[in-house]
Amino acid sequence: MKSHIVLLSPGEHGNDNQSDTFQLEDLALSKRSQMKFDALKSKSVRLDINFKSPSHTGLQTTEMVKGLTEQFPAATPLALVLKQFLADRSLDQSDSGGLSSYCLVLLIIRFLQHEHHLGWPINQNYGSLLMDFLYFFGNVFDPRQMRISVQGSGLYIKRERGCSIDPIHIDDPLFPTNNLGRNCF
């Protein structure tokens, strides 16, 4: 089984179209359900294609993240700044050892849950929140000893000794046995 994807981008003068064609072979047998293309680097376009599979939770994840960012509005500006910070250092792609956007949002939400739980005002300025986030995850949080969950009001859970060799453990809210941080290094 072969399929083709054609990507069109504006030409040098804006009127022509340049296309890049990718051949996809035997997707039904592939264990990989996500494909990434950085074909149009000059235009800074990144394209992710996900194929529906039993483990695909994109729609549920989207709804959950929308709900969490409505509950914690400071998460959005923090995520934008931190995502750019990671991208500038090539640390924003989980398949190359970085932190995915989803993991980043969960870290931010957990941090804001912690701030809220302590009774501190979440409405403090974003610069202070950013510095507190960086301080906490850089100096206080020990990923070898704790794992992260946003379930309920959020938890920092003591990791079982010898339970996992993953550098950071972030519970997937939709599948708690799935460690979203397993690809980070």
UniProtKB/TrEMBL annotation:
Cross-referenced Gene3D superfamilies: 1.10.1410.10
Domain annotation PAP-associated: ranges: 125-178
Matching InterPro entries: PAP_assoc, Trf4-like
Protein name (database record): Non-canonical poly(A) RNA polymerase PAPD5
Keyword terms, alphabetized: Magnesium, Metal-binding
Organism expressing this protein natively: Glycine soja (Wild soybean)
SUPFAM superfamilies: PAP/OAS1 substrate-binding domain
Gene Ontology biological process terms from the UniProt entry: polyadenylation-dependent ncRNA catabolic process; RNA 3'-end processing
GO molecular function terms listed in the Swiss-Prot or TrEMBL record: metal ion binding; mRNA binding; poly(A) RNA polymerase activity
Any one cellular-component term (Gene Ontology): nucleolus
PANTHER family attached to this UniProt entry: NUCLEOTIDYLTRANSFERASE FAMILY PROTEIN, POLY(A) RNA POLYMERASE
Domain of life: Eukaryota
